[in-house]
Amino acid sequence: MSSGMDDVAQGWLQHRMVLDDLLAQTTDDDVDYRPWDGAMSLGELAIHIVTSTDMFIQGIKQGEFSEPATENHYKTMTDVRTIVERYTEHTKEEIKSIFDFQLKGYILFQSVRAPGTYWLSNAIDHEIHHKGQLFTYVRMIGAQNVPPFMRQPNEV
């Protein structure tokens, strides 16, 4: 394992754990909330975040990308939070087990050929982008006390 991957996993968790904090602001009635026509629902967006990050990490490890996992067997935000928790634990361990050669290897995805380091950064940026959208969703459903953008290192 790359000596820095534990630190990478911790840094990523500082962002991912805020997803849990945001979802804690929701009720089961919010699972299908869409702020505009054509938007992902709140539940879909949360699941998109975790399955996409998992897809990027698996692609880095395998040297090629596949479609993200489909997780559509949920009815409530409680179900969504359970899916998020499961993916968080799995992805954390997968990040920690990435080797240096996997980070240096080039992978083709959507007509872009780039090293694993690029795709790892892209995965984290993609997650942060959608987490920002979730902040908006959660405020629009009436949450008053949203969490900070990321947790401090001692809060993970």
From TrEMBL:
Stored Gene3D superfamilies: dinb family like domain
Source taxon at top rank: Bacteria
UniProt KW Cell wall biogenesis/degradation keyword: no
Keyword Metal-binding included in the entry's annotation: yes
The protein's name in its UniProt record: DinB family protein
Cited InterPro entries: DinB, DinB/YfiT-like
The family this protein is said to belong to: Belongs to the DinB family.
Pfam families: DinB
